[in-house]
Write a structure and sequence with these properties.
Largest sheet: 4 strands, mixed
CATH topology: Translation Initiation Factor IF3
Number of strands: 4
Structural class: alpha+beta
Radius of gyration: 13 Å
Distance between the termini: 10 Å
CATH architecture: 2-Layer Sandwich
Strand order of the largest sheet: 1-2-4-3
CATH superfamily: YhbY-like
Number of helices: 3
Order of helices and strands: HEHEHEE
Shape: globular
Amino acid sequence: MISAKQRAELKSLAVNIKPAFQVGKGGVNNAQIDQIEDYLRVHELVKIKVLDNSLYSAKEASIEIAGKTGAEVVQVIGSNAVLYKRNEKEPVIRLRAK
């Protein structure tokens, strides 16, 4: 569980990254989950865009993806969602203590 200060720090990092994945009308599938898990293992922070033709809202998609990957939802703004999952072996992002 990340604290409010850590969440703010992650939000500031997420401003500069572009969406790495898109959720379209097909929704979230297992192949996409596997790719997102691999991406999180390397980068720890991912931005996902939910397209207008999707049956999901950005919040619904982020909750489902976070549940399946073990990540945490950092923020949802408009059609974008940011997820964070710490790599315990080789951390990339050094968050301040809670």
